[in-house]
Each structure stands twice: as structure tokens, then as C-alpha cells.
Design a protein that fits this description.
Blueprint lengths: L2 E6 L2 H13 L4 E5 L6 E5 L5 H13 L17 E3 L10 H7 L1 H18 L3 H8 L4 H7 L15 H22 L1 H23 L7 H17 L9 H16 L8 H21 L6
Antiparallel strand pairs: 1-3, 1-4, 2-3
Helix pairs in contact: 4-7, 7-8, 7-9, 8-9, 8-11, 9-11
């Protein structure tokens, strides 16, 4: 009966360990599951479990050992030993603690949306809605530069945005830390919202500019530093870029904040380039 013994956040060490285990007459194979550590090493014979775990511990302690023939061990990647627990491997509260800023933004967006459903649209927009730069220069309510991020106009709008924010944001926060995600959020919010203000006026809302920023960041980090373990499948990259183009073509059933999307994407890609140059390894 097959049994998982260790899971990694990226594929290369899992493949390397499988090869080494097989060379030691311990039958194993690579399998991919869902979650933060999807790349899993599975042994095919329960009798080999003790020997396999010994090798796994040795591998994790010194992955650069020449016997593993590893010349490109990914720097700074997290590793999780499998356990025998029948419960969820990553409880919800643990995930929330690992991604506090991602969770905070989700909570704020959901809270604001609930207020809109309860009929407080005028009050919400009066508190968070964008205003012209001339007005902001007088009243100094600069929080309005990011305020539109939290205003969503439909269930589809908020579900789409928060789904991608959660998937991509928590991975960025896990690998690079909350401070990096906060900086990316603020930079992309300012770029997207100011750009949209200039092109269409103050009546807009949604987190989609930031969503395109985290998408662009993960996309380009995967290109520039693939060893850091963040990347996107090609079909998802294609979908997001096609969605961007369709917004400009004006063939969708909703009004798209095209400028916000574009500037968010550019912000994310640019931040990925900066991070790839400033950091030798990602540091949470």
C-alpha cells in the first residue's frame, strides 16, 4: 500500500528524492496533490517507511549533499513532513495566521459588501469612494486612494476578485512575508485607482487592479526566479490576459476597469522584477 512520506512546495526536490530513494532499493514515486505543499514523495511498500523517513530527514537536513546530485536546490523553499493525522493537514485558523494581511483584506471586502447588501450604499461610497485630486488636496482624505478596492457591486464581482486574491495573495505572503504583500497592495492600489480616476472619473470600485498585480507578480517571479516556488500554469496566464483584452474590446456584459487592470498588472510585474534583483532568497 502506498504512503506519502514528505511533501514539498516545488517539484524539483520531490523528483530528486524519489530518484534517490529508488536508488536505495526503496520503491517510491512522485505524486501531486492540492495544497501549499503539493509535490509529494510516496513510498509503495509500507515496510520501507522507517528507512524512507530516515533518508527524508537526512535529505532535508543537508539537501546539497553531493550524493543527491543536486546542483540547483531551490533556495528558501518550505518543506513539510507528512503525518498520519486523519484530519485536515492545514486547519483554517492556521492558514489565516500564515496569511494575516490576505485574510484582513478579504474580511474588509466582505464586510463592506454586506453593508451594501443591507442598503448602506450611499454611506459606504461617501466614506470610501474615490474623489478628484483637487478635492483630496483640500480635505486630505487620502485613504480614498485605496478605498475603492473594498467596494464591490455584485456577488460575481466580489467572488471573482476574492478568489484570486486568496489563492495568489496567501502564497506571496507565505513566501515573502506580510510586509512585501502590503507594499505590493499599496503600490498597485495607488497605480490602478489613480489611473482609473484619470480615465473614467471617480465612480468605480473593486479589488481587480490589485488582483491583476498579484497575478503579474506571481507570473513574473515564476519566470525570473523559478526556484522560489511561485508560478502560474500557462492556461491561467492565457485566461487572465484574454480577459484583459476582452475588457478593452468592450464585448463583455459588465463594465471593466481596464486602466486599473492594466496598471495593476504592470505594477505586479515591476515589483516582481525588483524583488528578483534585491533578494537572493525570499525571506518571509
Amino acid at each position: 500500500m502506498s504512503k506519502p512520506v514528505v511533501a514539498f512546495s516545488i517539484e524539483s526536490p520531490a523528483r530528486l528524492l524519489v530518484d534517490y530513494l529508488n536508488s536505495q532499493s526503496i520503491q517510491s514515486e512522485y505524486q501531486r496533490f492540492s495544497g501549499e505543499h503539493p509535490h509529494t514523495v510516496v513510498i509503495l511498500d509500507d515496510n520501507d517507511e522507517a528507512a524512507a523517513k530516515g533518508i527524508v530527514e537526512e535529505f532535508i537536513a543537508n539537501p546539497e549533499d553531493q550524493k543527491y546530485q543536486q546542483t540547483a536546490w531551490s533556495q528558501g523553499q518550505s518543506v513539510k513532513l507528512s503525518d498520519d493525522s486523519s484530519g485536515p493537514k492545514t486547519p483554517v485558523l492556521q492558514v489565516l495566521k500564515q496569511a494575516p494581511f490576505t485574510s484582513l483584506i478579504m474580511l474588509l471586502c466582505i464586510s463592506v459588501y454586506v453593508l451594501l447588501l443591507l442598503g448602506f450604499f450611499r454611506e459606504v461610497f461617501a466614506a470610501l469612494g474615490m474623489q478628484s485630486l483637487d478635492v483630496l488636496a483640500v480635505n486630505h482624505q487620502w485613504w480614498r486612494l485605496i478605498g475603492p478596492d473594498f467596494i464591490h457591486f455584485s456577488a460575481t464581482h466580489i467572488v471573482f476578485n476574492l478568489l484570486w486574491w486568496w489563492i495568489l495573495g496567501k502564497d506571496i505572503e507565505r513566501v515573502f512575508g506580510s510586509s512585501s504583500l502590503i507594499i505590493l497592495f499599496l503600490l498597485s492600489s495607488l497605480a490602478a485607482n489613480l489611473g482609473q480616476l484619470m480615465t473614467s472619473g471617480p465612480n468605480f470600485g473593486g479589488l481587480s487592479g490589485v488582483v491583476y498585480a498579484v497575478f503579474g507578480f506571481v507570473w513574473w517571479i515564476g519566470v525570473l526566479r523559478p526556484s522560489w516556488g511561485l508560478s502560474l500554469p500557462r492556461h491561467l496566464i492565457g485566461f487572465m490576459l484574454i480577459w484583459l483584452v476582452l475588457g478593452y474590446a468592450d464585448v463583455l456584459w459588465v463594465n471593466m476597469a481596464n486602466t486599473a487592470h492594466t496598471l495593476g498588472l504592470i505594477s505586479g510585474c515591476a515589483f516582481a522584477w525588483v524583488m528578483s534583483r534585491l533578494k537572493a532568497t525570499p525571506q518571509p
